[in-house]
């Protein structure tokens, strides 16, 4: 039996102020999962700078917003420099910006491979290269937001899956390189989470391949053992824990958060 209030009822409050004074950057913090993460870090006492290309009407109050296109080298450099200046240093990097904007056979995706790699993989590589050196003196935490598209063969998502797979491999390797500096590096591997992007994806998939968006939502939920799509707060709770001192022995891990979906795949 599915409890429709599960996301409300199952939450236990995290220690308040556990991130007091920590300085965090959250890419793609203007909506969806990134906004939920930024909100949680602020609640925990962190100073937060977020980025996105467009406006940020749903950005959490209290976060400083830096407009930047992180699919470009210049955009990442601008964001890194501005965030460092605003925060006076960096303790937490959440590489969340990403997504998939085309849902066709990879054989038709000649033009989208580069953008997909840029925003889902190279944006994190470039941002870490700019900001991790700032952390080296005092330690810190780097989070990469990945997808269960890396785990199973999902049709029409291979470019996105490949980019996220690169991100996960890079995340694991970076953890070994940075452990001696007291910097932890983790990735979170997400299943279907209800966000503006997932709504857009359903619309695009129906446009391209037919069907009904509501049916598709039901189908996605039915494939999840816990019976519902994720809520951005499910992810934010986990990230808040992972960047906190409570997770001080966790590094190099790829944490699957998917309502049990990949565990049920055979
Ligand atoms: N939702 C899911 O089911 C799901 C599942 C697995 C993994 N994920 C991953 O979770 C992360 C967040 O997804 P979401 O569903 O919350 O997406 P979303 O609702 O579309 O939000 C994406 C955020 O990233 C920003 N962004 C996108 N492209 C950007 C660019 N080129 N430069 C700078 N900022 C950019 C967006 O702002 P602008 O558009 O204004 O730039 C927005 O703030 C992504 O990495 C995604 O791959 C999501």
Summary tags:
alpha/beta, seven-stranded parallel sheet, 8 helices, 42% helix, binds NADP nicotinamide-adenine-dinucleotide phosphate, SDR_fam, oxidoreductase activity, Short chain dehydrogenase, Sc_DH/Rdtase_CS
What can you tell me about this protein's structure?
Helix content is 42%, strand content 15%. The radius of gyration is 18 Å and the shape is globular. The two termini are 23 Å apart. The protein has a single domain (20-257), classed as 3-Layer(aba) Sandwich (Rossmann fold), CATH 3.40.50.720. Helix 4 (112-135) runs parallel beside helix 5. The chain has 8 helices and 7 strands. The chain binds NADP nicotinamide-adenine-dinucleotide phosphate (NAP). It comes from Streptomyces griseus subsp. griseus (strain JCM 4626 / CBS 651.72 / NBRC 13350 / KCC S-0626 / ISP 5235). Keywords: Oxidoreductase. InterPro entries: NAD(P)-bd_dom_sf (IPR036291), Sc_DH/Rdtase_CS (IPR020904), SDR_fam (IPR002347).
Fold topology:
Layout: H1 6-9, E1 23-27, H2 32-43, E2 47-52, E3 64-67, H3 73-87, E4 92-95, H4 112-135, E5 140-147, H5 158-178, E6 183-190, H6 196-209, H7 213-222, H8 232-242, E7 254-257
Parallel strand pairs: 1-2, 1-4, 2-3, 4-5, 5-6, 6-7
Helix pairs in contact: 2-8, 3-4, 4-5
Bound molecules: NADP nicotinamide-adenine-dinucleotide phosphate.
NADP nicotinamide-adenine-dinucleotide phosphate is lined by residues 28, 30-34, 51-54, 69-71, 96-99, 119, 145, 147, 190, 192-193, 195-198.
GO molecular function: oxidoreductase activity
Keywords: Oxidoreductase
Organism: Streptomyces griseus subsp. griseus (strain JCM 4626 / CBS 651.72 / NBRC 13350 / KCC S-0626 / ISP 5235)
């Amino acid at each position: 039996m599915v409890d429709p209030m599960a996301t409300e009822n199952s939450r236990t409050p995290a220690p308040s102020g556990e991130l007091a004074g920590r300085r965090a950057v959250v890419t793609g913090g203007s909506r969806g999962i990134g906004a939920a993460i930024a909100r949680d870090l602020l609640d925990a006492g962190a100073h937060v700078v977020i980025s996105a290309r467009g406006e940020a009407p749903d950005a959490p109050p209290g976060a400083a917003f830096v407009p930047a296109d992180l699919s470009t080298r210049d955009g990442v450099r601008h964001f890194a420099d501005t965030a460092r200046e605003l925060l006076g240093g960096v303790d937490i990097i959440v590489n969340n910006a990403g997504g998939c904007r085309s849902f066709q056979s990879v054989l038709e995706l000649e033009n989208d491979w580069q953008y997909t790699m840029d925003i889902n993989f190279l944006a994190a590589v470039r941002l870490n290269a700019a900001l991790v050196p700032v952390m080296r003196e005092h330690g810190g935490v780097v989070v990469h937001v990945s997808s269960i598209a890396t785990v199973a063969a999902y049709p029409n998502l291979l470019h996105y899956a490949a980019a996220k797979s690169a991100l996960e491999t890079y995340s694991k390797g970076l953890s070994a390189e940075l452990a001696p500096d007291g910097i932890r590096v983790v990735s979170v591997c997400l299943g279907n989470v209800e966000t503006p992007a997932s709504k857009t994806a359903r619309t695009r998939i129906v446009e391209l391949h037919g069907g009904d968006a509501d049916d598709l939502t039901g189908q996605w939920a039915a494939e999840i053992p816990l019976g519902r799509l994720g809520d951005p707060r499910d992810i934010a709770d986990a990230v808040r824990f992972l960047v906190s001192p409570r997770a001080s022995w966790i590094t190099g891990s790829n944490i699957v958060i998917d309502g049990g979906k990949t565990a049920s795949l055979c």
